[in-house]
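debug: dumping io for the single-chain case to check the tokenizer round-trip. Nothing else runs in this session.
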Amino acid sequence: MTLPVDEIYPSALVDGLRKVGVDAVSVVELKLGGSSDAEVLGAAVASGRVVLTENVGDFARIAADHSTGGGQHSGVLIALSSRFSRRPAGIQPLIAAIRAIENQLLADRVVDLARARRR
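debug: decoded output
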């Protein structure tokens, strides 16, 4: 999975994902900082990447519009801030949630990530 990470997330998340083998890149590294959500999804589509964001409203709509128009995308992962803090304590649970679904087929899907349940 190649994953552009929305600019709202700290660079520590990108670093943490890379350490566990996820090909992560920040939107800023892609020179898309400050770009519209549609531009971010468009760049992800062009490069075959899955997007990580917490912006469910905009990205779900943009992805649906893209699919309805006959386009395909590699997927959108939604990590709601109510489940995953952007603070340091929230990074590992978010990485675990991404790792839990990384082998799933994500094409043309918007996936709402869930925190792993404690045993």
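debug: round-trip ok. Residues 2-112 form one domain.
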